[in-house]
């Protein structure tokens, strides 16, 4: 009976949808459900964010103020009042899943969200966890807690896991057109979850269980971590044996099968790739299985900021300068191009390491006005394009707003970690992966 009731509410657009966590994942999802005609309430513990949203001000790059205001006019609201969960027919959990200082899973945000749901739950609700986590979380955490309250999954309530696949700032793929995996604890759970999400994401992929869905997300990002580590190691090797790794990767990419192109860089950033593999590694260790491949990739990727520092020192040495006392400009602090997200950005560690080595460091990023350093201090970025005042400029995030010819022309020295200056012939630009022991490798046109 409850399944049919929820199915009818989905079809008739009379379902109320709650989204817990209004960040890069939750807010776009809430807006998508609202624009599809559902009554949506967004829940967050951050009063400032809630106030911003209710005033029509979006802090997420993928949601414009106009889009937000349209949904507010249609009934969307953000709140810190979790008692309203009792009024929701469906609840999606989109909270962070960071790591502890010991590099183990921190699921405290999930636990907090589940505690709130448990406090205000009522029969007939559909609950979907979207937060990336280790296989078994949905059943071990949510289902077991509800069992203690004599709530039977598939009868009294419905439970799914559907991993988020948000790529902030992606101009092609967004919440609505990215295929999405979903797995329920029972067939009825999967059917209802798929039916609801299909209202905003047409390409839903149903799997046999939450555990499979949880594992699928970790496979996606661990795959990326391992391959990025591989090309990062190739970049270090190429500098040693005098090979242009960027040209070699492009050449390998001409093979139409059996190869996927990845590119090296200064490290990995964002909330997924630096963290997700550690959830899988932790689960493996818990099961007395040592995932050497995963851990080795993490080790290489974590090493890259140190490699950048050494390359910066080598580049300065070509002008008989030392890192200690040099003025260094970091070009980009966001973890990837054309977004304002600095979470886990390797630029943050590079900033600290340069200062530890005695460099005087400024940061330029057209998308980031301020960021917090490792000590919690607020650092303002610069807009001053007097590149020649710096002994070295380091390209970390190649935002499209950067005028590369101007930077190359005005700078004394440039260290390029992303091959951004590939099309520019300049003897003062040194690129990781083709430095040839501190000698510029010519680009043949």
UniProtKB/TrEMBL annotation:
Top-rank lineage group of the source organism: Bacteria
Pfam families per the UniProt record, alphabetical: UDPG_MGDP_dh, UDPG_MGDP_dh_C, UDPG_MGDP_dh_N
UDP-glucose/GDP-mannose dehydrogenase C-terminal domain boundaries: 329-423
UniProt keyword annotations, A-Z: NAD, Oxidoreductase
Keyword NAD: yes
Gene Ontology BP terms: polysaccharide biosynthetic process
A GO molecular-function descriptor: oxidoreductase activity, acting on the CH-CH group of donors, NAD or NADP as acceptor
Family: Belongs to the UDP-glucose/GDP-mannose dehydrogenase family.
Protein name as it appears in the record: Nucleotide sugar dehydrogenase
Organism, as annotated: Listeria rustica
